[in-house]
Design a protein that fits this description.
By secondary structure, the chain is α/β, with parallel strands linked by helices. It has eleven helices and eight strands. Strands 1-2-4-3-5-6-7-8 form an eight-stranded mixed beta sheet, with helices on both faces. α3 (about 120-135) packs across α4. The chain is globular, with a radius of gyration of 19 Å. The N and C termini lie far apart (about 50 Å).
Length: about 350
């Protein structure tokens, strides 16, 4: 089976990608002296322990009920990659924020590790609402969600059936269903899709019989002369000190790579179907003007009901909005949540 990311990047030759420039505002591991961080765990409805980092503004009044935001990391990443940064920045604006590891990833439980399980990922966000909504200092009627990359599609999926999510924002969103079925720019044929599905199905026999787990997708571990620009973009984040992070119990060889047998579950994932039913809860879609993933935010915006907004960030590619603080519109996110979590 060709790696999913290979299918995606080969399909995207028509997209311009900003050259890797690590020092240009990159601050993935940002720490704030205005915020206190504590590790938390809570169970989802599948009884999986979900791990998170709770960010509490130092000047917050704990005897009041405060607004909160849940932040989801890119697909294949963990909370230490991009989502902690966003959570810290939003906490500086006065929100209680929670960055979480999706089930089977990072510090959250679940076996096999690195599984793709979109229904469970969406449930993780609802479980995070359960957790925050029963806190003594969070107003359960003022909880928003923010999904980065693949988590953008997971928070939309969750919000469709969880009205407790009062405001929904996405950044550099990937529709993980469409990306798996069609690749970028609808370049993957039905025959190619069926070949991927067949290989994953055969791999289930191997793993059921106790054989070796195989992995797919993710980011390459070395650059070659013919490495595609989109893979170079991901490499510059995931394989350099800019954003590399290996959770305990994993290894650098496995980070970002979902299991081959589970990754096809995304082909049954349709997060944008019925997205209009989220209305009248507000939605904000943020993407870069040169992001290879821009098509997904534009598609979601077109389908969504009112109120909605699409913000296209000049000079930004897909991964730029993971951690380049000089490009990420934190002020816009703050005003969106402040205005809609009153």
């Amino acid at each position: 089976m060709k790696k999913l990311i290979s299918s995606l990047v080969l399909a995207a030759s028509s997209f311009s990608v900003l050259a890797a420039d690590m020092p240009n505002g990159a601050d993935n591991f940002f720490k704030s002296d205005k915020v206190t961080v504590q590790k938390v765990t809570f169970k989802n409805q599948y009884r999986i322990n979900v791990a998170g980092n709770l960010f509490i503004p130092n000047n917050m009044y704990r005897n009041r009920m405060n607004p909160a935001i849940i932040v989801g990391h890119p697909m294949g990443a963990v909370k230490e990659q991009s989502s902690n940064l966003y959570a810290a920045k939003m906490a500086e604006q006065g929100f209680v924020t929670l960055s979480l590891d999706l089930s089977f990833w990072g510090e959250s439980d679940g076996q096999h590790r690195n599984m793709a399980a979109p229904e469970i990922f969406s449930e993780d966000f609802s479980a995070a609402v359960d957790f925050l909504g029963t806190s003594q200092f969070v107003d359960r009627n003022r909880i928003g969600v923010l999904g980065i990359c693949g988590s953008g599609s997971f928070v939309i999926s969750a919000a469709k059936i969880d009205p407790r999510m009062k405001a929904i924002a996405t950044v550099s969103m990937y529709d993980m269903g469409a990306a798996s079925r069609h690749a970028l720019n609808h370049s993957q044929t039905l025959e190619q899709r069926k070949k991927i599905i067949a290989e994953a199905a055969e791999q289930r026999y191997v793993e059921f019989a106790g054989g070796e787990t195989r992995y797919t997708g993710g980011t390459v571990h070395e650059l070659k002369d013919d490495t595609h620009p989109i893979q170079r973009e991901f490499f510059d984040f995931y394989r350099t000190p800019r954003g590399e992070f290996t959770p305990g119990g994993s290894s650098p060889a496995l980070t970002t790579h979902p299991t081959l047998s589970s990754n096809v579950k995304f082909m049954n994932f349709y997060p944008f179907n019925d997205i209009e039913t989220i209305s009248p809860r507000p939605m904000l879609f943020i993407t870069g003007d040169s992001a290879h993933s821009r098509e997904f935010s534009e598609d979601a915006y077109k389908r969504a009901g009112q109120p909605k907004e699409l913000l296209i960030v000049p000079g930004a590619g897909h991964v730029d909005l993971y951690d380049r603080v000089n490009l990420i519109p934190f002020d816009k996110l703050a005003s969106f949540f402040q205005g809609n979590l009153k």
